[in-house]
């Protein structure tokens, strides 16, 4: 086999990468050179992530790898730091860790993650999850979780099911107050005898390189399809609440495709649930990537958001700072998607989007809407950058 390895590595990459480029046809502006450049950048991001996905760990020798974060921005929740670990329903595993003080810790087992080979489960057939509200945690914040297909007889501790055929473990470190919460620390081990981790054969290396090359097209097919489906169903500037099979079972997602012009703004308005364990809103670009969220105010959550005196939440999406609370900065994009989340809430209101002239913005907001000065905004953004950089991000 070693003698048959091609002298040019591009022989193993070009077909998969060109298939990803061809997905430009499924974007909203396939002939726009800016879209083409953005898609090239997205492809490089997904290709580089592929090394973590396919070379770092295996089900017999599990370990945490970064998944989505401020670098790998394929629609991550900016409040979440995601970790991935390959698993198999043929084995049992144990997670040992400390919860820290973040808003929420969740973990779930499922079928293949986006971009990876195998079955992508939209029904939840292979899915199981739990969050820290389900966990037995001691006074120091320490915990253990057993993962297996069946709960062992007599086991009364924490347990997460691996349904037959599940191959992925995902965790979310979900933060509210980014700068003042402590991230969890966790280890995972396989409880079955599997031997030492071996050197990869040439065949295994080439197989993994092929998976890396095809990861971008697998991702774009999935996510372009999801955002295009929202647009086809309800048009633009309309929310369509949904629960996704194979996603957090307690979370209602609020997707919408946004669209406005240079001299316009969008006003997002919603009632807030009485009981709201967690909620947020974020902006994505036209390719389903989270818009820059460290150096831009492109997201907010229940900790940072400022409710209006009437109890509603209002945010403004505009290219320029509107001088009001809850600016969602689209970073120059006039099209993209919005995602909101209600997690473990007693109601799930559907927000609205109102398209107005930027110059007339205050005529469409309550008269008691505060003024946010440029100095206020600068301080807000600087605090956000400091907080984001102090988080574990990869």
Concise structural overview:
With 394 residues, the chain is an alpha+beta fold. It is built from four helices and 17 strands.
Structural class: alpha+beta
> Using only CA atoms, what is the Rg?
22 Å
Structure summary, number of beta strands? 17
- Give the ordered list of helices and strands: HHEEEEEEEEEHEEEEEEEEH
Largest sheet: 5 strands, antiparallel
Strand arrangement within the widest β-sheet reads 1-2-8-4-5
The first-to-last residue Cα distance is 35 Å
General form: globular
> Beta-strand percentage?
25-35%
State the helical fraction: 10-25%
Give the count of helical stretches: 4
- Low-pLDDT parts are none
Mean pLDDT: 96
Write up this protein:
The chain is α+β, with helices and mostly antiparallel strands and 394 residues long. Helices cover 21% and strands 26% of the residues. It has helices at 14-22, 33-55, 202-234, 374-389, and strands spanning 65-66, 80-86, 93-98, 104-110, 128-131, 142-148, 159-161, 168-174, 185-190, 251-259, 264-270, 276-284, 299-301, 313-317, 327-328, 335-345, 352-357. Strands 1-2-8-4-5 form a five-stranded antiparallel beta sheet, covered by helices on one side. Strands 7-6-3-9 form a four-stranded mixed beta sheet, with no helix packed on it. Helix 1 packs parallel to helix 3 (202-234). 37% of the residues are buried. The mean pLDDT is 96.
Write the layout of secondary structure elements.
Layout: H1 14-22, H2 33-55, E1 65-66, E2 80-86, E3 93-98, E4 104-110, E5 128-131, E6 142-148, E7 159-161, E8 168-174, E9 185-190, H3 202-234, E10 251-259, E11 264-270, E12 276-284, E13 299-301, E14 313-317, E15 327-328, E16 335-345, E17 352-357, H4 374-389
Parallel strand pairs: 6-7, 14-15
Antiparallel strand pairs: 1-2, 2-8, 3-6, 3-9, 4-5, 4-8, 10-16, 11-14, 11-17, 12-13, 12-16
